[in-house]
Amino acid sequence: MTRTSRRPALPAGLAGGLVVSCQALPGEPLHGPHFMVQLALAAEAGGAVGLRLNGLADIAAVRSAVSLPIIGLWKDGDEGVYITPTLRHALAVADAGADIVALDATGRPRRDGLTLAETIASLHRCGVLVMADVSTFGEGVAAAEAGADLVGTTLSGYTPESPDVPGPDLDLVRALAAALLVPVVAEGRISTPDEASAAIAAGAHTVVVGGAITRPAALTARFSAALAAHTTPEDQP
Ligand SMILES: CC(=O)N[C@H](C=O)[C@@H](O)[C@H](O)[C@H](O)COP(=O)(O)O
Question: TM segments (predicted)?
């Protein structure tokens, strides 16, 4: 991407629509840019208005094949601050072709020592839009004050400070949507169309769905577990 000091407007098509998160980590059967491009094309065919993608190779490959807006991130590790943990990661995600860069905005120390506000200001100077992934109401308010262009509930359920619930944190969506001027993104454990609709009703600007659409191994495991519950010990070979 060509860096410019002019920050673009948020892609208008995101409002009220579905963003499909297409992610497969190393070791997952669908890992790799080829599969992510195919998933992204399938999402587009199904009516998605945007995509959420992890990693420079996947972002670049999908950017060249699909014209939908991309929320990009770079997962580096899987503990603490691992979603786009430094300014360097964020700039690389933008350069790979993301329209919006998602980053951890939980308030935990960032690896490069920059504050969230400093990180966002640097990205804005480069014309990059920022989605703040938060886990609590307080983090969402702080992220908006730090200048985030979008605030997402992505990390609710993944920090000690947030509720450990099996479904989406619609209470957090509702509270943030009522309090913030910036758009709120509902993300995390949304697994049915009814839950996606409920997120919009709760005030979400857009809804991100990942595993319920793009992780077939996890989906298969749900069905297998349901059938296994009917299996008696005598049925075992
Ligand atoms: C916590 C974390 O690292 N979330 C990641 C963020 O990009 C992804 O692993 C999720 O799949 C994504 O948030 C969509 O959520 P779900 O797959 O539950 O619909």
Answer: none
Range 79-87, long-range pairs (CB < 8 A, 24+ positions): 80/108, 81/106, 81/108, 81/109, 81/110, 81/111, 83/133, 83/154, 83/155, 85/110, 85/111, 85/112, 86/110, 86/111, 86/112, 86/114, 87/112, 87/114, 87/119, 87/122, 87/123
Distance between Cα 82 and ligand 1 center (Å):
12
Residue 33 lies in a domain: yes
Length reported for the chain: 237
Specify the ligand 1 atom closest to the Cα of 214: 17
Cα of 197 from ligand 1 centre, angstroms: 18
Q: Report the DSSP beta bridge partners of residue 50.
A: 19
Ligand 1, residues at Cβ distance < 6 Å: 21, 23, 52, 73, 154-155, 158, 187-190, 208-212
Q: How far is the CA of 210 from the centre of ligand 1 (A)?
A: 6
Any domain includes 132: yes
Residues spanned by the domain of 54: 14-182+189-204
**Residue 148 covered by a domain:** yes
Distances, alpha carbon 158 to alpha carbons 163, 171, 190, in Å: 8, 16, 14
Output the pTM of the full model: 0.95
Q: Whose CA is nearest to atom 6 of ligand 1?
A: 154
CA of 38 to the centre of ligand 1 (A): 19
In a domain, 212, yes or no: no
**Per-residue pLDDT tens over the stretch 43-80:** 999 999 999 999 999 999 999 999 999 999 999 999 99
